[in-house]
Amino acid sequence: MRRLLFACVFLSASAAAEPPVEPLKLLTEHPVEGMRGGNLSGLAWCGDGLWAVSDRDDDRLYRLTPAQGELHAEAETFVAPERPDSGLPWGLRMRSWVMGKVRGGDMDFEGLSCDAMGNRYLVSEAHAGVLQIPPAGELQWLGLPESLVRQARASGMLLHFNALFEGIAVDPAGERLWLAAERERRGLVVMHRQRSLWKCTGGCVLLSEGGMELPPAPLESNEPLPRDFSGLAFFNEKLFTLERLAHRICRRKPSNGEVERCWSFADEALTPERRYDQPYGMAEALWIDEEGAWIGVDNGGHARGDGESRPIVWRFAAPKGGWGNAR
């Protein structure tokens, strides 16, 4: 009886400690027309417009312009310099190289962010590197710490093919940079800029966690899948993680990755007309601002319930009270 009582108290305390999850309201949705490779994998509001990147394109960004309910993608091309050695093991690099030749997208750009100076940052999953595209001048791969990959792998991240860095966030001053590892184990790393180099202050790894969870009920799956991060954003001195399987956004402390609050978009994303015939989520891109959230869907060419097979961008309203003040 004492053991049972203790267990009940412990579970109740654990449940109470879990951050509340509230639903987000969908304002608009926009099919994206004109992305050459499809597979929208990153979003960022840079300057006066919304920009996107595809993990199938190594040489372009897309400016997204509203037009009759759609977003038209206008390409801005670039030529990336020779990529540096990331420190990833030979086996992972070779599998990424083969996949790039088969499907397109040798760089496998999986996230996009920008700072207040107009610099745009792309994270390459295949090469665990960050490409900086300035508003004027030459492109460059950031000088990331040599120990970054080693520390991440020692914490259980970046061990599996196609499960490497999936999201990026930069603060407006361009002085702090976070990367999100996708799954098995998912996690967060942080670096600080010192002149032209980036350093780990007190260690690169903020968070590393494993575990499995069930998809939301509308997906009607009883098979637990690995917890994941598929996108990352920085707003108002907070980090926001896009959690694809769980169909939610979580606000986290930028100093240690601790989760503070979460908001679900499952009710809106998993209606019959918006649902894809997949046992997991398809949301891969995130941008947060005062008025709401932009979420990009990388559908991989799959058609959803209503037959739409183009990439989708959703605009959700900010929660009541705002992203940073909601209680």
TrEMBL record:
Name the SUPFAM superfamilies for this protein: YWTD domain
From which residue to which does the signal peptide run?
1-17
- The answer to keyword Signal applying to this record is yes
Q: Where is the Phytase-like domain?
A: 38-185
Q: Report whether Signal shows up as a keyword of the record.
A: yes
Q: Report keywords, A-Z.
A: Signal
Protein known as? Esterase-like activity of phytase
What is the organism of origin for this protein?
A: Pseudomonas indica
Q: What is the lineage of its organism?
A: Bacteria, Pseudomonadati, Pseudomonadota, Gammaproteobacteria, Pseudomonadales
